Amino acid sequence: MTVLATREAVGSASVRPAKIVISGVTKRFQRRGDSFLALSAVDLDIAEGEFVSIVGPSGCGKSTLLYMLGGFVPASDGSMRIDGEPVSGPGLDRGVVFQEYALFPWLTVSQNIGYALDRSGRPRQERNEIVERYITLMGLRGFENSFPRELSGGMKQRVALARTFAYRPGILLLDEPFGALDAQTREIMQDELLRLWKTDRKTVVMVTHDVDEAVYLSTRVCVMSHRPGRIVEEFDIALDRSGSREEIVLTDQYRGIRNAVWMSVRRQVTESRTATA
Description:
Largest sheet: 7 strands, mixed
Number of domains: 2
């Protein structure tokens, strides 16, 4: 059974206690003496174990919001809290996958994947087994000793994904994590992310331009407006994900949800073009 609920964005996600609380967050940037507003009074609560995707027009501030949650960009106004504590910088409680790979160029594929594991205190054999598993999963067999400069863009992103997934932080922050992958690898990685989430119920916040990806993976999809970005609509999604990908995406229910989210995003894109015309 599939349930879709839409609502106006009011900042309250669930009856479960909120793990992430974003309250009135605004972000202004200064460039060459000019100021522009990237985000305007964003409110969003995310419960522990939720998988929330953020979609919206290009340039609406999706990635900026994610980087702020990661502690890399400070808010101009408002607050962000995780487990009641203010976000004041990056932390090991949050694993971040960037669009730009962010690999250590002096480390091999195996060393990059195992970087956080080496500092976790786990036994060496366990660390090696985890690294080997992700090398196989990501199709990196034969490149274990290669350096990032020797890899294609898609392979670099696979290494970045493997490094983050391998040490399993409490929160995953994903910025277009599958954008550089070919279609087949992209689906494999989506399925692996879904499997990990169903197993561990980590809290996931993902930014994506791909509405199908957002609906397939998420328990909730938040649509942002054109700049200055704010959350204008939310879709609670309850899909039966016990079957195969085909059993999910070929249903009328899935297509109905996908179309509703897409139309919401399209409205924001249309309003953006009208505003700048």
